[in-house]
Specification:
alpha+beta; 5 helices; four-stranded antiparallel β-sheet; globular; Jelly Rolls; 139 residues; 8 strands; RmlC-like_jellyroll
């Protein structure tokens, strides 16, 4: 099931099945309660696939908020991170993410993506992709 959901995230078209399978093996189910802060504006520590519930994405210097619901994702820039940087430079979360209600999510930690990147470094270094932003969001 995580692999099927991962295949629905807007990814570079040349991301191969081997990488997607490796990523799906690291996805961990987590539950959060209303108003939990999942991600803060700082180096990005995780990527979340929202299975149930809704999260609010807030920028401290921007007055409006965005919502992501079940079937959406935040932190997808971790998927392209091994291709556009050298470790240990981490991508930055430009927003904070908090729960609007109870949330169930699949979580990929940055340390797991780093391990995947090292294992499959040859693949990532040959990719010609641009950095992903967190604004697409659907999986």
């Amino acid at each position: 099931m995580p692999l099927n959901r991962l295949k629905q995230v807007p990814l570079p078209q040349n991301m191969d099945e081997k990488v997607l399978r490796a990523i799906s093996e690291y996805l961990v189910p987590k539950k959060y309660t209303k108003n939990d802060i999942i991600i803060r504006e700082k180096p990005l520590e995780m990527m979340i696939f929202i299975v149930e519930g809704c999260v609010i994405i807030e920028k401290t210097d921007f007055p409006s908020t965005l919502k992501r619901r079940a079937g959406e994702v935040y932190g997808e820039k971790l998927l392209s991170w091994p291709a556009w940087t050298s470790f240990p430079t981490l991508p930055i979360a430009t927003e904070s993410v908090r729960t609007d209600d109870d949330v169930e999510a699949l979580v990929l930690m940055v340390t797991d993506m780093q391990e995947i990147g090292w294992k499959l470094r040859r693949y990532f270094s040959s990719m010609k992709i641009t950095r992903l932003t967190d604004m697409s969001g659907r999986f």
